[in-house]
Amino acid sequence: MNETLSFGLMAFTSFFTLLNPLGTMPVFLTMTANLSPEERTKTARKAIFTAIITLIAFSFSGKVLFEFFGISIHAFRVVGGIIFFLMGQDMLQARLASTKINEEDIKSYVNDISITPLAIPMIAGPGSITNGIILMQDANTVTLKITLVLVIISVLLLTFVILWSSTKLVKFLGETGNLVLMRLMGLIVMVIAVEFLFSGLSPMIREMLDLQ
């Protein structure tokens, strides 16, 4: 029970900080500025549904992809740690990742922004996909796998609520509040990145020493 609770809490924290729904709000509002409240809600709902399917699919197919391409989970942890660290650094400096504010992408997909770039890669980006794959590898029981799926769904449903009420939340938090929250999430992401980096490097270094 304690293991499931700890795993679920860690998964929830990592996904929430990586998805960064509060930091996504200003971009979402900009992208849907010309939509009615009903259309904005429909766009957010479709984006969240797409992100749920994407994250769950990648989480379960990660092992197959590793075997097909001959990728080590330890190497993936190291790469994931680097990705998380860079994302956290951008967030700590109160900058949105370039994939989230690429105006050319927004204009190119204006007819269906709910899938691209809103759902992918703005919500289900490289960081959250990597997180899902690695955590699914760590989930060595059926209970933990179910917990991970429930966490993914719950975090994305919370993201939907935040986007749905984004107009009120942005006004309530103000510019300073948004910047403070983004920096705080960036710090948490960087801590997670260090944990992932060392959890991947440690077994690789041990294997190298054993070969010698």
Present the secondary structure layout.
Blueprint: H1 2-19, H2 21-31, H3 37-69, H4 73-92, H5 103-108, H6 114-123, H7 126-138, H8 142-164, H9 166-211
Helix pairs in contact: 1-7, 1-8, 2-8, 2-9, 3-6, 3-7, 3-8, 4-7, 4-9
Structural class: mainly alpha
* Share in β-strands: under 5%
The quaternary state of the protein chains shown equals: single chain
Q: Name the poorly predicted regions.
A: 96-102, 105-111
If helices are DSSP runs of H or I spanning 4 or more residues, what is the number of helices?
9
Spatial shape? globular
Total strand count, please?
Answer: 0
Mean pLDDT: 80
Question: Termini, distance in Å?
Answer: 41 Å
Fraction of residues in helix:
over 70%
Radius of gyration: 18 Å
From N to C, what is the helix and strand string? HHHHHHHHH
Outline the biggest β-sheet. none
Structure, explained:
By secondary structure, the protein is mainly α. 85% of the residues lie in helices and 0% in strands. Helix 1 packs parallel to helix 8. The longest helix is centred in the last third of the chain and has 46 residues, at 166-211. It is globular and about 65 Å long. The N and C termini lie far apart (41 Å). Mean pLDDT is 80; it is low at 96-102 and 105-111.
Please supply descriptive tags for the structure shown above.
212 residues; globular; mainly alpha; 9 helices
Task: State the gist of this model.
This protein is mostly helical.
